[in-house]
Amino acid sequence: MGAPPRQIAQNKKARFDFHIEEEFEAGIELQGWEVKALRAGRANIKESHVIIHHGEAWLVGARISPLPEASTHVNPDPTRTRRLLLHARQLRTLIGQTQQKGFTIVALDMHWTRGLAKVQIALAKGKKKQDKRADIKERDWQRQKERIIKEKNR
After folding, report:
1. How does DSSP classify residue 6?
2. Which of 25, 29, 115, 154 could hold 83 in an S-S bridge, CB 3.0 to 4.6 Å?
3. If residue 4 lies in a helix (H) or strand (E), which one and from where to where?
4. What radius of gyration do the chain's Cα atoms show?
5. According to CATH, what is the number of the domain 7-127?
6. Cα separation, 154 vs 148, whole angstroms
7. What is the C-alpha to C-alpha distance for residues 60 and 52, in angstroms, rounded to an integer?
8. 26-72 pLDDT, tens per residue?
9. Residue 63 burial by CB count (10 A; 0-12/13-18/19+): exposed, middle or buried?
């Protein structure tokens, strides 16, 4: 049997809605039932973002759906706020940058690293509508260019 898939959940919309300035990998503080649910692939981070509160980073809006076999003595909250584990230097960078106008912290993906659940977060600036249009146009041009090259090589 091969290794389990590395990626748990991805936020594809984040790269479309934001200019990514800098990426960080953060550990995530989880409860037992959440780890089991992540191993089953029951996570969604599309609506999630990171806030800084009292010098700590918190993941807000991530949804980890409990398994139906979850223990009866645990009351699972799928959208609870989860603490992110970062080095002090990384945390200082994020705090300093988010105090500047226009910067936010978004979750890009959730994955496994050596058996530990990690979240890829990014310092990002919101895109304007025309920036999104330019991205779509660029992506379409790249696709068209690949088709042309493929046709020429036949």
Report:
1. S
2. 29
3. none
4. 19
5. 2.40.280.10
6. 10
7. 10
8. 899 888 888 888 888 888 888 888 888 888 889 998 888 888 776 66
9. middle
Domain ranges of the chain: 7-127
Closest CA to 28 of 71, 57, 61, 67: 57
Mean pLDDT in the chain?
A: 83
Q: How confident is the model at residue 2 (pLDDT cuts 50, 70, 90)?
A: very low
Amino acid at 144: Q
Other Cβ atoms within 10 Å of 69 Cβ, number: 9
Q: Cβ neighbours of residue 95 under 8 Å, at least 6 residues apart?
A: 52, 55
Reduced to 3 states, what is the DSSP secondary structure of residue 133?
Answer: helix
- Report the range of poorest mean pLDDT among 52-56, 72-76, 78-82: 72-76
Asked if 78 and 64 count as a contact pair (C-beta separation under 8 A), the reply is yes
Alpha-carbon distance 7 to 19, whole Å? 22
With 70 as the cut, is the pLDDT of residue 97 above it? Answer: yes
DSSP lists the bridge partners of residue 56 as 53
